[in-house]
Amino acid sequence: MKLFLSTFVHKVDKKGRVSLPSTFRQVLQHGTMEEFAVVRSFQKPALEGMMMDRMEQLTRVIDGIGVYSQEQQDLAAVLLADSKLMTLDSEGRIILSEELIHHVGITEKAVFVGKGRTFEIWDPETYDGVLKQARQRLSQSNVSLSLGQLNQNVQGVQ
Fold first, then answer.
1. What does the alpha-carbon distance between residue 66 and residue 85 come to, in Å, rounded to a whole number?
2. Which end of the chain, N or C, is more open, meaning fewer C-beta atoms within 10 Å of its C-beta?
3. Has this prediction a pTM greater than 0.85?
């Protein structure tokens, strides 16, 4: 599976149209579709984009939570009912609605942030601050990654 990687800044026009980075388009095409879902993050001022198979995985997880529990209802409302299905136009652009633009605080530009199986869309200034804080936290922590341990922990996860 190809992954959404790297960071790209693109101009947003007055109609909310913005070009999806070409490497992100390649990931979508590799997945045999140019259709994907975008949801407003409930944890940060960003949009989260993902291929439909990832959205289906989230749906299965939400379905596994107690039916009609408040947590299940909240997650279904925020992640499923509030999601937007996106398709690319002939020029590789998507249209961000006024509602999505307002959530992120985008004015003239948007930054696309690859997160592996997903990607995020941020206001560039906001994301710069978030990235600086993340780098600072990591530099002050003793976090390390062990690929051997990682492989054992994620067996069976796709």
1. 26
2. C
3. yes
Q: Is the dihedral of CA 131, 117, 58, 121 positive or negative?
A: positive
**What integer pLDDT is reported at residue 145 of this predicted model?**
80
CA distance between the termini of the chain: 9
| Nearest in space to 91 (alpha carbons), one of 37, 25, 30, 38 | 25
Regarding the domain delimited by 7-153, which CATH topology (the fold level of the hierarchy) does it fall under? Answer: Chemotaxis protein chec (3.40.1550)
Q: What is the pLDDT of residues 132-145, one digit of tens each?
A: 999 999 999 888 88
Whether 153 has a pLDDT exceeding 80, the answer reads: no
